[in-house]
Structures are given as structure tokens and as C-alpha cells.
Amino acid sequence: MLAVLAFYQIGVVLLLTKKNETSVLPFSGSVWKNPYNDFSAHNNVEKLALHTHTNEVWFTPERHGAIEIWNEYKRNGFSNIAITDYGQISKIIGADFIEGFEWGQNLRKRHILSIGAKRSFSDYFPVYASRENISWVIDRMRNLGGYVIIPHPKLNDAFSKNELIEIVGYNAVEVYSPFGDDSRILDILLSAGRNVHCMANDDLHYLPESTIKTLNQPFWKNWIQYLGGQRGRRGESSLRYIVTSDGIRKSDELTKSLQNGSFFCVKKFFREGEDPKIPKIEIKNNKEIIVSSSERYLEIRWIGQNGEIRKIDPDRNNSNYQIQDHDTYIRLEIIGLTGSILSNAMYRNGSKP
């Protein structure tokens, strides 16, 4: 049996590959790209969770149902959630959840998340997957219409910083995750010329204890949860999420917004606090970036190449930055009273005609 498994694993590792080609640096020219050009009124937005797990997969019967999870998120002001079970698209489409799935069941936690894909596929690399194998998985997800995310890269050191640069094709990386928050990953990728987006997710496996106590669960589910040490936790629900423009909340319309980077990543400091207000971002004459908000933030940070902090404005609800000749991209980290907000990069993208 071990010999058959070894033969199979070697075969798929050698056959199912995609060459990792070095990308051309996209951040050049005099024209700046603003992914928030079409972002509607920043006080009327959609709050979305794109990484949740249910009991629909046969080997996770002790988890919660999609409707139970949705009710929890709805109570916390969410417009929609993605059901991203391992290896399958959720069968509960009638509730209009965002379609998605998570690939990978290996112990090292080298997983890949697909949002908006219409079809899932199995993990052909249960023991080992090379960088070229991972790129093959990502390429297949994209061909199936998915927006591709590298989840929890710091969990078990699943993806090193070098691997994140060399693996191609993915759209975003979870820099806000219960398994490690690290926005500096974005600067490593952006400074290498990779226009990768931020992502913020709860990666929900179990609801908070206060919520579980209100559910009418069968005794065996309670028993398994206690044995697995999953009871008594505060839970990670409703703390990390993305914010899209007004009306962008369903799979088909969401995919385009994600591809364009027209969303913000948010991490709340505590669930009971108010949601931090999303800013408006404008670029004037390719020379100045202007940020304004109805909330007075503790700090607005302007970050550029190699993670260098270009400017910090404390205790403000507005700020501006004069674009410098050496700037290839600029992104924002905003600290509010109840949470922090990350923008996707504004970057050089061509020359004037």
C-alpha cells in the first residue's frame, strides 16, 4: 500500500505542474491606477466574510450548519458569507451564499482558497506538493472562474516569503488571519512587482461558545466538540472581513470587484465595537492621493516600496500624500478606535497618451 501511494505521489508531482515564470514589473509609467475609482459612498458598504467552514463535508459533521453560521454573521451586520468547505462547493445555493471552496488537506496546511468558482476538484497531492504543483492548482482554479487566495501563510510556515514570490497566479494573500496577522507580506510581494491584494478572513471553524449555547445541537455534536477542545472558545467570527462597495455582495458581481482590488481589509479589535468607517480615496492629476472619512482615525499611515512608511498623520479624518518620483506603489494602513483598515495598492500603470 505504501509503495502504491509513493508511486502515485511521485507521478502527480512530476505530471501536474505549471512553470513559475518571472513576471514583468507592472508598476511603471506616469499614470496611477486607483482601484477605488468606482467605490460608491463610503458610509454605505457591504461587509463580507469569505472563509467559513460548515458541517457539509463528511469528515466535519461536528461543525455548524451554513444557516447557523449565516445567522451569526447576519447578527453582526454582514451582507453575505462564502461557504468554503474542503474540496467541494456548498450545496446550499438557495440561500444565495457566495460560492467557494478550499483546496488542500495536507498536514503542512498548504491550502488554496477559491472564491466564485463554479466547480471544485480534489487534492491530488496529499503528501507533498512542489511550488510548480501549487501553481498548477492555482491555474486550474482560475480557469474555473475563481478568485484565488493564499490562506493563513504563517500557519505551520505553510508558505515562505520566497515561495509567495515564486508561486504564480494567485490574486490575494490572507494578511489578517486568526493564524497570524502580517501586512508586511504585501510589501514583499508589491516590491517584487506582484500586484497581490490583501485579504482578511475569520477562517471560521467553530462559532463562539455564547452562540453555540443558543443552538439546539444533538448530544453527540456537543460531545465531539468537547472532546476536540472546541468548546469554551470565544471564537473568531466577525473580527476579520472585507468591505466592498454598496450592492457588491453576491458571487457573480463580487468576482469583478475582487479582481479589480476594489475592496478594503478590516480587522476589528473586539466584536462588540462599532465597525471602523471606510475612507474615500482619490488620486488627483497623478500627483496627489487624498483620503477622507467620516471617522476620526488614530493614525493614517502611507506605505511604499519595501514597506517604507512615507508619511504618518495622527488623529485625523483626512490626509493627503504628494506622489514622489521614486514611488512605484502606495498603500494605506489606517488605525481606528475599534479596528484597523488596509487598502489595496495604488500603483503606476502606464503612461499618458
What features would you highlight for this structure?
353 residues, 11-stranded mixed sheet
Percent range for helical residues? 10-25%
DSSP E strands, number: 16
The helix/strand class is: alpha+beta
User: Which spans have pLDDT < 50 for at least 5 consecutive residues?
Assistant: none
What's the multimeric state?
single chain
Question: Helices and strands, in N-to-C order?
Answer: HEEHEEEHEHEHEHHEHEEEEEEE
- Name the shape in a single word: globular
Beta-strand fraction estimate:
25-35%
Please write out the topology.
Blueprint: H1 2-15, E1 32-33, E2 45-52, H2 66-75, E3 80-83, E4 100-103, E5 112-115, H3 131-143, E6 147-150, H4 161-166, E7 172-176, H5 184-191, E8 197-200, H6 209-212, H7 219-227, E9 240-245, H8 251-259, E10 263-268, E11 280-284, E12 288-303, E13 309-322, E14 329-335, E15 339-342, E16 346-348
Parallel strand pairs: 2-3, 6-7, 7-8
Antiparallel strand pairs: 1-16, 2-9, 4-5, 5-6, 9-10, 10-15, 11-12, 12-13, 12-14, 14-15, 14-16
